[in-house]
Design a protein that fits this description.
Low-confidence stretches: none
Distance between the termini: 24 Å
Strand content: under 5%
Order of helices and strands: HHEEHH
Number of helices: 4
Oligomer: single chain
Strand order of the largest sheet: 1-2
Helix content: 55-70%
Largest sheet: 2 strands, antiparallel
């Protein structure tokens, strides 16, 4: 359910990751020299990318509220709604 406490904590966590990425990536592009060696930052950014992927998968299973203020629980309708709304933006980002 979209209003359950675990889902809300997950959304807060994802918001934190988006803010973190929005500061770290431009800083690294501007000020960190490009090296071919793998660094700790690469592992951190990979872990964050995995979290974003998990968020996409979770959105296929999360109910939503329709125009009539009713929860939609049918999986096919949830998937269709997500694909037609936020999926491609999430995938690109």
């Amino acid at each position: 359910m979209p209003n359950d406490v675990p889902k809300q904590y997950w959304d807060y966590y994802m918001t934190f990751l988006v803010l973190f990425i929005s500061f770290v990536v431009p800083f690294r592009v501007a000020f960190v020299e490009d090296t071919n060696e793998s660094s700790d930052w690469d592992w951190i950014l990979l872990a964050i990318d995995i979290c974003f992927f998990v968020d996409i998968v979770l959105n296929f299973f999360t109910a939503y509220v329709n125009e009539n203020k009713e929860y939609v629980l049918e999986r096919k309708i949830i998937i269709r709604h997500y694909v037609l709304t936020w999926f491609f933006l999430d995938l690109i980002s």
